[in-house]
Design goal:
50% helix; alpha+beta; 148 residues; elongated; 6-stranded antiparallel β-sheet; 2 domains
């Protein structure tokens, strides 16, 4: 059984990390699960230890990967909340090294009377620069939420 679990977990982790639709939290979970399985097997030398290691590693990997996403969301929320209309704000994510430049526009009320803002986002991710335009509206909890 041991010879089946470890290669399977490694294949799952590699597959998850290469998918374009997977976020950093999910990628972290896959890599964490594979690493945890290897450590669990090395310590316990049985399938139970391997599965426990995979579960704990997956949880820890998800938490770490998700925190990297949170940094950019916090920065973007700050620009929507306090950014001067027409003036760019930029940052570099210390974990991913991706850079962002956001230029917010004046706030307005949408049809549900929620505060909304449009912004131009210039993102450089893995050396590729992309420009996009977004709209975010304030939730009832006070956070800015990107609209579809």
């Amino acid at each position: 059984m041991r010879n089946f679990i470890i290669p399977s977990l490694l294949i799952i982790a590699i597959s998850l990390s290469s998918c374009g639709q997977i976020n950093k939290g999910q990628t972290g979970a896959g890599v964490g699960a594979a690493s945890g399985a290897l450590i669990g097997q090395a310590i316990g030398h049985n399938s139970e230890a391997t599965l426990i290691g995979a579960a704990l590693g997956g949880l820890l990997g998800y938490i770490v990967g998700n925190e990297m996403d949170k940094y950019d969301k916090e920065q973007l929320n700050h620009v929507y909340e306090r950014g001067v209309s027409g003036q760019s704000s930029s940052w570099r994510n210390p974990d991913s090294n991706n850079t962002y430049q956001v230029t917010p526009q004046p706030a307005y009320k949408n049809t549900q009377q929620r505060d909304c803002r449009q912004a131009e986002i210039l993102a450089t991710i893995d050396g590729k620069t992309e420009k996009t335009y977004t709209t975010a509206c304030r939730t009832y909890e006070g956070q800015w939420e990107l609209q579809n």
